[in-house]
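ok trying this again, last paste got cut off
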Amino acid sequence: MKTSELIATLLLPKLPKIGCRTARKLTRHFGSAEAVFQRIGRENTKPFNRIAAVFKHPEAKHIWDAAEKEVARIEEHDISWVAHSDPDFPLALNLCPDAPLVLFSSGQPFPNTTRVISIVGTRQPLDAALKVSELSSLLFQLEMKGVVMAQAGKLFKLL
């Protein structure tokens, strides 16, 4: 995806009355986020007529400038990103109608699977918590099913 498409994708849900759901509908209808800005209000877009004025609002230019700066920081810090329309976007997340349009990461990419579990807890558990055999058994069973575990920003196959 080119930089201008990333800027448009970051900008869309930040516009008043848009949000992630409507941004997804707009990009599906027009084919890309960049095409939304090029074509909305210039052609017969009856389903979106009531929000077309948002794109002409002076605030849109300020949000566009902020998105350009955000993309510059992304490139400066070598941050990876994947848009909702990209085949590498997590399948399960793309099933959520209001999921973010772009995911950012550094390090290892997120596996494209619907079998992911995230376990939240302390980094310094009590001894009693470490002895819980039920959790070990559950993790083993999940590993046998090919589930990936996301923990503290890291991804790995279960023990």
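PB: full thing came through this time. The beta strands are 80-83, 102-105, 116-118, 148-151, 154-157.
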